[in-house]
Amino acid sequence: MLAKPSVLPLRPASAHQSFIDALEQLYRERTLIAYKAGQTISLQQGALLVVCRGIVQLSTIQPDGCETLLGLAGPSTPIGLPLTIINPYWATALTDVDVLPLAMAEIEASPVLMAGLGHNLVGRLQQTEAWLAISGKRLVVDRLHHLLVLLAQELGQVEPSGVRIPVRLTHHQLATAIGTTRVTVTRLLKDFKTQGWLKTHHRYFIVNWEQLNIASTSESSLF
Description:
With about 220 residues, this protein is an alpha+beta fold. About 40% of the residues lie in helices and about 25% in strands.
């Protein structure tokens, strides 16, 4: 989560403390499973994985062979087959990733783990609904714009010039996420850079603060 600006919703620092303490105890007792960027993460029935470091891409494939990007999971986020009815469904490490496996039976026996995971699942639900709202926008330019802003809000890292999205997403991946072509995404990204609110540095996208403020104000006015 971002530390700035105030228009972005922030979770209280104490909200996850018991969950974090429980996970740290498990860290000491178990070996985390590490994946290099680009590797497929093994998912098992009856178990969740908590992302401890890095960012994971969740995907499926359509009957015509087109891959669909379903979401991104960052630190403290649970992922796994028990959380989906999509088939096929897989997870890929977008960066170097460490995950902590938790059997469902173990989670159900621990009120602390149940509460902590439930809190983080709310974040997954919010992201899913935000992606659905984006997919419902009629104009491709609006879909791409709002996707980049959402990724900056969800995963962004603060820099002097704005908020850096800390994964190198290809034009093809962005096109897959919003249901358009790579050529269209390339053209729109050039337009965004010309408008001045989007920059790239070492293939990372950087969204300026003003754009995040505008997006947050616009969304809050809908309710």
